[in-house]
Amino acid sequence: MMDSDEFALPSDTDVFEEIAKSEQQIKVSTAVRRYGKKMTLVEGFDKHVDVKSIGRRLKEGLACGGTVKNGIIELQGDHKTKVKPLLVKMGFNEESINDQQ
Q1: Does some domain include residue 45?
Q2: Position 7 in a domain
Q3: What span, in angstroms and rounded, lies between the C-alpha atoms of 68 and 18?
């Protein structure tokens, strides 16, 4: 017998989020905050993407702290080179991720 989950089609929201991910123009940059602490900023997400979920997954993948403020993911530390591969693994288009100096 086959499980009914084996042939389950993706829901409309899953398909819509995948399309939204491919159309993002994401900017990854670093900034120096109080006391000389480096922060990695990931921005450029539109309202169709769950930024809090992405922030949570990035924090787990990078083993760092951080927050989401006004649609911008702030990660503690300099993770600029590591963020892009994680975003690509999450389904974002590699060409749409811009690394800023």
Answers
A1: yes
A2: no
A3: 21
